[in-house]
Amino acid sequence: MKPRTSPQDLRSHRWFGREDFRSFGHRSRAKQAGFTAEDIAGKPVIAILNTWSDANPCHAHFRLRAEDVKRGIWQAGGFPMEIPVLTLGETFMKPSTMLYRNLLAMDAEEALRAYPADGVVLLGGCDKTVPALMMGATSANLPAIFVPAGPMLRGHWRGQVLGSGSDAWKYWDEKRVGNIDECAWREMEDGIARSFGTCMTMGTASTMAATVDALGMTLPGASSVPAADSLHPRMASMAGRRIVEMVWENLTPRDIMTTAAFENAVTAAMALGGSTNAIIHLIAMAGRAGAALDLDRFDALSRRTPFIANIRPSGAFLMEDFFYAGGLRAALGRLRDLLNLDCLTVTGRTLGEEIDGADVCNDEVIRSRETALGPEGGVAVLRGNLAPDGAVIKHTAADPALLTHAGPAVVFSDYNDLERRIDDPNLAVTADSVLVLQNAGPLGGPGMPEWGMLPIPKKLLAQGVRDMVRISDARMSGTSYGACVLHVAPESFVGGPLAFVRDGDVIELDVAARRLSLRVSAEELARRKAAWKPREVAYPRGYGSLYARHVRQADRGCDFDFLEGTAPIADPEIH
Question: 267: domain range?
Answer without folding.
Answer: 43-153+195-355
